[in-house]
Amino acid sequence: MTKGKNDLPPLTPRQMRGGVRLATLYLRSRSAGPAAALLATVIAACWLWWRLGGGGRNLTTALLPMAGPLAVAAIVAAGARSPFGEVETAIGHRLPMLRLPHLAGLLLLAGAGLSLVAAGWSLPGAPWILARNLIGLAGLSLLAARIMGAGQSWLPPLVYLVLCGGAIDERNVTEWTWPALGAGDITAAILAAGLLGAGLVAAVPDGARDG
Amino acid sequence: MSAALLRIEVRRSPALWLLVLMPAILALSPIAQHLTPVALWTDRSTDLQSSLQGLGPFVAGLAAWVASRERRRGLEELLGTTARPSWARKLAACGATITWALVVYAATAAVILAVTALQATWGGPVAGPPLVGLAALAACTAAGFAIGDLLPSRFTAPLVAVAVFGLDAAAMTAATQRHNPLGYLSFAYPSIGLSASAWYRVRPDLGEVQATWLFGLAVLSVGVLVVRASRRTGVALAAGGGLLAALSAALIATSTTDAQGVVVPLLHNPASDSAVPYTPVCHQGTVPVCVHPAYSGELEQLDGLVTRLIAPVAGLPGAPTRAEQRPSGAGVDDGVLILPAETLHGAPDPFVATQIALGLVSDASVSSSRGLTPAQQAIALYLLQQSGEPFDDLRLSTHAVVNAEHRFAALPASERRAWLAANYAALQRGQVPLGQMP
To answer: Which of A80, A84, A82, A124 is closest to A103 using CA atoms?
Structure first.
């Protein structure tokens, strides 16, 4: 195979060290360490919440498959905030290459943790429901982070969660309140995936709004 | 804390988002759907308190966000050099958040109470639940602000909001499903007994304890906020607030419940238990159906529901000859079918239909002492199915009950009637085993 005109030369060890350092500094600027610790705490709290709730059919355990992913999604979206603002945007032209792995990594970590915790629950399809809700609510939070700022990105998903809670209370769950639907609902899965796609498209290229 | 500082904070507060978000939440929430014909002041006042389920987490989260502002913007040292003490700045920021929350709450109250004033069918305004809501608003804001000040991080605000939402849901579950008295301290738990509200005077016991608890939490949080700037004042406030909260928890731990709501022995005034006299309003259908005048707007709907449910057993030995709404109880009592004191909200209500169907197959004295037998549940399910009413399938969903109902419904009408004529009275007493059903 001949070498293409646009192929980049292989990275030197020094450049690789520089890349690792850049990624590390980026993650530190986004408080990725505390975020991971908080994710672990929230996942542990979900496990505890289910255990204390007795796993039966009650309001607390009905809300958990939404409240747990919401807390996790809020942490991921809050982590998108840049402490440097416009300065970083002006000089860092490859930031999306750092943003995407950062957000995707946190989401994967949280999704795996939540699914693992929910594996023993009596709720049918609990691991998938939690993962689906995390996907959708994270998408909504990232959209909000782009529009309202990462600091207030939790507001729209929380409004939505309160409405979903009301729908469960009134036994009036529809596609409009998709996080409250069961594991087998295809519409809910499509909506969640669409929201995540929209959230990533909004937040990855330009980051969260400075606010 | 100067007025000028407070004015600046009010203008720049992120709590302005509440003005946009809360009307949307309230308009789409069950509270808005309750603004239908039967308007009891007690119900509507409690709806106002329930609005804290939506408002509380937002206010707490926003307060935590505001509290971490100085750290977020890197202004701590700069502001530390100004003449005003730090607690004055913090209290001004906290006060601005509370101000906006109060504006939203007051606007909500104005709408709900104005609609109720036009529709009210019974009673007068009840101050207790809205005041508990006010105390809850102050407690959520102060607690959120104190946590945001202690742990200023980008993650604090969302986690505080979700935690308030989750803790309140957990407390509500503890109160409603486990009857744990500490759950009554949830700011969304109705501070007055709803089902008894039209029949008895308002009992203020729980409202007083809830308000004290929430006030204690608010004072405790302000103490935590002030303690770094003024140790003595902060500790005194925190201790006073903690004492109030502990006292409330101790009081509620001694409480008991009855049909009228929660009794707190140390605060209880027996005068609040006295019944309010009324003359029932009746409608002559298959059997006379009588309701409290507060519910007269739904009498026709209720009469239609009873007529459809009672049809298969009407005229049989043991069948009710009259249906009457009462604040408590269920089943047939001396030929009177007890109807639940629930508002239908102008639409078919699965809970009420199920409650009446279960009442039709049980004797009042028996149903109060133990659960219904599978045969009773199967016939109740049949009554619901043949009426075409939506019902609460969670209460009648066991495999054996559903199978027995299918078998019974498949019989010819004459055989069904004959079996009911022979067994209905025994069925009400719970003396018919499932195997004896055809």
So the answer is: A80
